Amino acid sequence: MSRPAPRELTVKDITPLSPNLRRFTFTGESLSDFPVDQASAYVKLVFDSAEEGQRPMMRSMTVVDSNIQAKELVLDIALHNQDSPEKLGPAGQWVGQAKPGDSIKVAGPGDTKLVDFSADWFFMAGDLTALPAIRANLHKMPTDAKGYVVLEVPEAEDKAALQIEPGKSPEGIEIHWVVNPEPGTHHDQLKQKALSLPWLSGTPYIWAAGELKSVLELRNHLNQTMPAPRPPRYISSYWQKGLDDTRHKQEKKRQLAE
Ligand SMILES: Cc1cc2nc3c(=O)[nH]c(=O)nc-3n(C[C@H](O)[C@H](O)[C@H](O)COP(=O)(O)OP(=O)(O)OC[C@H]3O[C@@H](n4cnc5c(N)ncnc54)[C@H](O)[C@@H]3O)c2cc1C
Fold first, then answer.
1. How far apart are CA 161 and CA 163, in angstroms?
2. Is the CB of 42 under 6 A from ligand 1?
3. Which of 107, 132, 165 delimits the end of a domain?
4. Are 220 and 130 members of one domain?
5. Which tens digit of pLDDT belongs to each residue from 119-133?
6. Does the Cβ of 60 fall within 6 Å of ligand 1?
7. What is the pLDDT of residues 203-243, one digit of tens each?
8. Residue 53 — pLDDT band, cuts 50, 70, 90?
């Protein structure tokens, strides 16, 4: 079956949530048939290649909200390397310059990235690229949910980006922060934080996403310490320092699937 064509959307609003995370609200008639309840699913921003005949470049982002009546789609996008234009990929370039009225093609949505809410407890970890999916999970968790969220952010001020709706974060979920001014370095920080937290009783659902090497460190630690059978989990990488998304995906397939 052929995939539906990407939707042509217009930037309606851009709001900084924190120094390094920007909220984009897109609008467009073609959102009228966007599926409902898609928070945590991914869509792909589609960028035409500068070279003729080359396939378009696509970059995944997580749906924060989709309002079909208002024909709006909301994404939170991390800023990176804005001082080094030569290091920017197509999404980074676009995000740094976008303004209301600009248009963009958006494909998807793909699968949601939700935990199994019936687990005994939850361990979720990630960086700014994973924050929108982690927030979507927190919003849907049962009020008596227990566990930990560990979030790595480039600056302490980025903690403001979590923006949980009032009353929506279960009290039993502790939020822990790691500040790493150089994302994609110091790969052991999520792991170290995980090591410092007392593991709860029962079977957790493990959710982790972010920079490949940080996720690998955490995954390897969990593999070594969690008794078999392994608890249910979603462990993925969303980017890799120094590699564009095409090369990152090759590394992810090679290293994370092992
Ligand atoms: C399922 C899924 C959901 C995602 N959801 C989100 C989301 O909601 N918000 C979001 O911001 N990102 C999200 N991402 C991550 C995003 O797709 C990548 O960061 C993507 O590589 C950005 O594309 P680019 O064109 O800017 O850079 P690329 O062309 O892929 O890479 C160019 C350079 O930028 C570096 N780079 C890429 N991303 C980052 C980063 N975050 N920090 C520092 N350096 C970086 C690369 O290492 C490379 O050196 C998601 C990824 C996946 C797979």
1. 5
2. yes
3. 107
4. yes
5. 999 999 999 999 999
6. yes
7. 999 999 999 999 999 999 999 888 778 889 999 999 999 99
8. confident
Ligand 1 centroid to residue 39 C-alpha, Å: 18
CB-CB contact of 248 with 240 (8 Å): yes
Question: Do 139 and 251 reside in the same domain of the chain?
Answer: yes
Q: How far is the CA of 238 from the centre of ligand 1 (A)?
A: 6
How many CB atoms neighbour CB 51 within 10 A?
Answer: 7
* Co-location of 25 and 75 in the same domain: yes
pLDDT of amino acid 1: 54
Answer yes or no: are the C-beta atoms of 150 and 183 closer than 8 Å: no
Structural domain includes residue 112: no
Domain for residue 114, yes or no?
Answer: no
Most informative mutation of 128, 215, 239 for ligand 1 (most atoms within 8 A of CB):
239
Asked whether residue 180 falls in the same domain as residue 99, the answer is: no
Residue 194 lies in a domain: yes
Looking at the structure, tell me whether residues 35 and 131 fall in a common domain. Answer: no
Count the domains in the chain.
2
pTM of the model: 0.97
Q: Is the domain of 149 the same as that of 126?
A: yes
Decide if 46 contacts 91 (C-beta within 8 A): no
Question: What CA–CA distances, in Å, run from 182 to 105, 142, 205, 211, 219?
Answer: 30, 34, 28, 12, 21
Task: State the distance from the centre of ligand 1 to the C-alpha of 198, rounded, in angstroms.
Answer: 31
